[in-house]
Amino acid sequence: MRSRFLWSAVRLLWARRLVSPARRHLNCGSLPLEELFARGGPLRTFLERQAGSEARLQVRGAELLAAAQLLSEKERELQETEQLLRDENEDLRKLAENEITSCQQEITQLKHQIILLLVPSEETDKNDLILEVTAGVGGQEAMLFTSEMFDMYQQYAAFKRWHFETLEYFPSEIGGLRHASASIGGLEAYKHMKFEGGVHRVQRVPKTEKQGRIHTSTMTVAILPQPTEINLVINPKDLRIDTKRASGAGGQHVNTTDSAVRIVHLPTESLDESAG
After folding, report:
1. Residue 204 backbone dihedrals phi, psi, to 5 degrees
2. Which of these, 39, 54, 62, 108, is most buried using a 10 Å CB contact count?
3. How much is the average pLDDT of 126-155?
4. 229 to 22, 45, 124, 173, 233: CA distances (angstroms)
5. How far apart are CA 141 and CA 204, in angstroms?
6. Confidence (pLDDT) at 13
7. What percent of the chain shows pLDDT beyond 70?
8. Cβ-Cβ contacts under 8 Å for 63 (sequence gap 6 or more)
9. More confident residue, 31 or 88
10. What is the Cα–Cα distance from 266 to 120, expressed in whole angstroms?
């Protein structure tokens, strides 16, 4: 019950723009990772300029400096190892190939780490979150895609050992998903999930396609941070409370006991209902 109330409160805050989705601080366009870190590339140039300015690096943090230095060392190690590929000793060449593969993986991980370190932190990074998925364009195929995405987030939460509680779930006729929401809580859950929000697209031959044609389907994801403290004031005049009572033959409580209650917040048209 607490989670459902919290979900309603977050949706109300979002409607009033008191809680907003994450801002995309880092905008590098659609440049691939290798191009970003290439000699003369935007991130490479930035890191080289920061290397000679301790004052600026202190703002970014010692972790960024350590990652940038380790990246330079690994790139030099990769260049030295690649020279061994021309050695006459076959065993040495095979050993060099294995070292090159390992070194390339470490370099890729360091580049991703540096990009994450460049994204400014937010006060809500340590908060829990509300996940909401909704099927978009594509009919039943879009609903199947939405179901797969929701399952993916649930499995990711289990992998991260986060708490995952489904709040709403509206399936489609053939096993898809029209709309669903969940409460996710754990260490830095919002920090890792905040950029998932937006429109997601898939292009594939759907299960419902009999002629083998490729279809494009979409679904939307909303990621909302759960506020740690809610100071929410609701004017009773803004609420409409509807009650329903059982009818027909029955015991003494029929027509006298409220069996269902619906509360509507008129300014935002947000509603919550429960059945007894």
Report:
1. -165, 170
2. 108
3. 94
4. 18, 42, 12, 39, 13
5. 10
6. 47
7. 78
8. 117
9. 88
10. 37
Nearest to 112 by CA among 221, 32, 58, 48: 32
From residue 97, how far is each of 5, 59, 151 by CA, in Å? 57, 39, 38
> What's the DSSP call for residue 22?
P
Identity of the amino acid at 140: Q
Q: Are 239 and 264 in contact (CB under 8 A)?
A: yes
**Strand-pair partners of 202:** 217
pTM across the whole model: 0.57
- Regarding predicted confidence, which is higher, 262 or 30? 262
Go through the chain and tell me how many residues it has.
276
**Helix/strand/coil for 256:** coil
Paired residues of 16 in beta bridges = none
Mean pLDDT along residues 182-211: 90
Q: Which two tokens stand for residue 111?
A: 């580049």
The 10 Å Cβ neighbour count of residue 232 is 11
Q: How many helices (H) and strands (E) does the chain have?
A: 8, 8
Strand boundaries in 205-257, DSSP class E: 215-225, 239-245
Please give the DSSP secondary-structure letter assigned to residue 228: S
H-helix or E-strand spanning residue 199 = strand 198-204
Q: What is the pLDDT of residues 214-235, one digit of tens each?
A: 989 999 999 999 887 767 788 9
3-state helix, strand, coil in the chain (%, to 5): 45, 25, 35
Distance between alpha carbon 263 and the CA centroid of its chain, in Å? 30
